[in-house]
Amino acid sequence: MRACRLCALRCGADRTSGPAGACRTDAVTRVFHEGIEWAGESELVPTYVVSLSGCNMACAFCLTGGASQDGRAGTPLDGDAVGERIRVATGLRSVTILGGEPTVHLDGAIEIAARVPRSLLLVWKTNATASAEALRLLRGIPDVVLADFKFGNDRCAGRIASMPDYVGAVRSNLRAWARRSRLIVRHLVMPGHLDCCFRPVAEWLAREMPRVPLSLMTGYLPAHRAWGELARTNRAAECRRAAELVRTLGVHLVPWRIARGPSAASQDELWIDPRGRVCADSASPALLSVLNGPGAELVI
Questions:
Q1: How many whole angstroms separate alpha carbon 291 and alpha carbon 293?
Q2: pTM of the full structure
Q3: Where in the chain are the domains?
Q4: Cis-peptide, bond into residue 294, ω within 30° of zero
Q5: How far apart are CA 212 and CA 206, in angstroms?
Q6: Which of 203, 225, 273, 290 is closest to 59 using CA atoms?
Q7: Which CATH class is domain 15-259?
Q8: pLDDT band at 265 (very low <50, low <70, confident <90, very high)
Q9: What is the full DSSP assignment across 88-148?
């Protein structure tokens, strides 16, 4: 932490003296969100998520940007307490460690990983910009790597997320993970970025990694500091074009589902998007029965 090189920026910041570097974090691992998520890739949910604050990217549209991009958000990690909450949770398929970017708190993330029961999949949710040094330390730890490939070119990555040399770093890391772990690539279709971002990502995956599945997300919401073309949701035509491109390229898609939860409502998290739609990160079965009712449009 005195000369941090955990992400691809390898900035060498001294994080022991306070928040520093592109990730704006110190040497303390903090958790800003924790709990069960019921919606997601079908083979992974329900999953117990542990979200660590601090990120080396600054995506303008980040849904959790207020906390995930603040390296001092949340509470210091208590590994034993987190491990106990995971142990007593029922019906889980996996545990997901994410951020922000979990790589910038690799020591704390591994402390969590060490407490995950072997009966559960350990999912490493990442923006795919770890350094080569961090990849070596992660070898053999995650069962599944769920990696975002957000931008199809360096210009968009720099303009929207303040991340230079993005594409090369992500492609290199995806190749490494494909050799070591079960890899799923996620892409969030952004309004106005179908041709400059999604198309290059999909074409590269079809050409270079035809057996790696894609988790395609079209429910973009203009959150955090979204501006310009990002200040709206995707149009129906954009979603159709994305689906057509996937079919044309023969990219294998990972299905999403809403897993069955406990009968008691435990975590119902809702908000209203600019179009007036009710949106949910997670929801109990009782709430889902309402949201999926006649005339309802559910965005997850």
A1: 5
A2: 0.88
A3: 15-259, 265-300
A4: no
A5: 9
A6: 225
A7: alpha beta
A8: very low
A9: H--S-SEEEEESS-GGGGHHHHHHHHTTS-TTSEEEEEE-S-B-HHHHHHHTT--SEEEEE
